[in-house]
Amino acid sequence: MLSQIFISDLPSKQRQYFRTGTTKNIDYRIAQLQTLKQVVIEHESAIIEALKADLNKPEFEAYASEFSFVIKEINYAIKNIKNWVKAKKASIPFILLPASAQIIPEPLGVALIIGPWNYPFQLILTPLIGAIASGNCAVIKPSEFAPHTSHLITEIISKNFPQEYISVVEGDVEISKQLLQEKFDHIFFTGSTATGKIIMAAAAKNLTPVTLELGGKSPCIVDKEINLEVTARRIAWGKFYNAGQSCIAPDYILINKDIKEEFLKNIEKCIQEFYGDNPKNSPDYARIINQRQFSRAANLLQGDIRIGGEINADELYISPTVIDNVTWEDTIMQDEIFAPILSIVEYIDINEVIDKINLLPKPLALYIFSNNKKFQQKILSETSSGGVCINDVLKQWFTSTLAFGGVGDSGIGSYHGKASFDTFSHYKSVVNRKFFLDASILYAPYAGKLSLLKKLLRW
Ligand code: NAD
């Protein structure tokens, strides 16, 4: 009950603060980003420990894809914000002269940010950076399934930012639903496609705009014209990073039949090199987040298991696994795998592959391994996906200069770098007219004026 009162008060408290204009001030925004950077740096070890406790995330992965990613995004925002906030001049038709026109970015107001458990720190903090840079207040709801990280985010935020500016609400689906009953000016959601639909339906009741960063099955097409060793190494790295629990992990491999056996040998070699004879003992291999996800993923271990397949429920461990001879009808091809299981579908004709991909929901990521420019171009132009990475995986996510987001079932909107600023801004178009030269042609009575109007509108 207490939390209910608290939650229903939050947006109005923040809106009051927003109306003071404090958060719109550019120096204030920069100072808040600097504070955020400072406290994240001070909590580096705590962040890494929390991620270890939640996911057994290796320190290297926690540093690269959570801690340093956030610092990089803050630095990028601080460096560019003065350019981003500038009003942009626009041209104006002759008939409206004398006048000037400009487009001014303004903050939306109070944002709600809801995050998932797989990169539980980064996927809350990165959108928050965008909300701050654009001058908004924010309520954030981390995932209940990464409790150590969720508590740490609460500690970091509540000790360093006033509640009326940024506040954290911890809790499960019920808390999330309570939050969704309130009116926000933007909802930024990262999570599954199924929940995304619920978020959008709730937002529609208040006409609240949404950014939906969702999931799905990301295909990885492997042609014959490749460096096989490097291809296998990059795919094995990207698939087993965070134990396969990445929204843009290569979900299934579509491989040219002629090179499949050689590719599988190389994947096996890479797994051995990365994690040793028994990946369970490797400090560099994460665990499945919880029993529910573990059981779901363990049920997918059927068919022609060529590599791995070992599980340990007590330790939430699934070894790096490769399942061969998968068909489109198999269970594993029906939903996002989100576990360290790579399914292999072989192809003979690339046109059939493209046709099939185009029948499925649009993926968040699509990967092409090929040295053949025509092959690359064909897939690029004949398929649609949130992003593409050619001859590697995940790398499209790591750069602040590229907007990151899905299309169709994999999401709505995007963020990272300038795109985060845009996401939490409204671009207000402003025309500023002068009082002199008030052309009478625009006013009724219109008799005899149309032919002149037609001429003037050509300019
Ligand atoms: P999820 O949709 O179950 O939960 C995400 C958040 O939504 C959590 O905070 C949860 O409390 C809340 N939530 C869940 N059900 C809700 C409901 N009915 N009403 C209101 N709130 C609800 O997702 P998850 O299991 O935490 O994350 C895994 C999914 O997220 C995968 O599909 C993955 O692909 C996707 N993902 C996408 C991205 C991306 O950037 N596109 C990044 C990471 C994860």
Question: What do these coordinates show?
Answer:
The chain is of the alpha/beta class and 459 residues long. It folds into two domains: 4-214 and 411-427, 3-Layer(aba) Sandwich (Aldehyde Dehydrogenase, Chain A, domain 1); 219-405, 3-Layer(aba) Sandwich (Aldehyde Dehydrogenase, Chain A, domain 2). 41% of the residues lie in helices and 18% in strands. Helix 3 packs across helix 4 (59-84), helix 4 (59-84) packs parallel to helix 5 (122-133) and helix 9 (228-240) packs across helix 10 (260-275). The model has no long low-confidence stretch (mean pLDDT 96). The structure holds nicotinamide-adenine-dinucleotide. Residues 114-118, 123, 141, 143-144, 172-173, 176-177, 180, 190-192, 195, 198, 213-215, 247, 336, 338, 364, 406, 411 line the site of nicotinamide-adenine-dinucleotide.
CATH topology-level name of the largest domain: Aldehyde Dehydrogenase, Chain A, domain 1
- How many helices? 15
**What is the alpha-carbon Rg in Å?**
25 Å
Poorly predicted regions are none
Secondary structure: number of strands: 18
The CATH superfamily title of the largest domain:
Aldehyde Dehydrogenase, Chain A, domain 1
Task: Give a brief outline of the structure.
The protein is α/β, with parallel strands linked by helices. It has helices at 2-19, 26-42, 44-55, 59-84, 122-133, 147-160, 173-180, 193-205, 228-240, 260-275, 291-298, 350-359, 373-382, 418-423, 450-456, and strands spanning 88-90, 99-107, 110-114, 137-141, 166-168, 186-190, 210-213, 219-222, 252-256, 304-307, 311-312, 317-318, 321-324, 341-347, 365-369, 387-390, 411-412, 425-433.
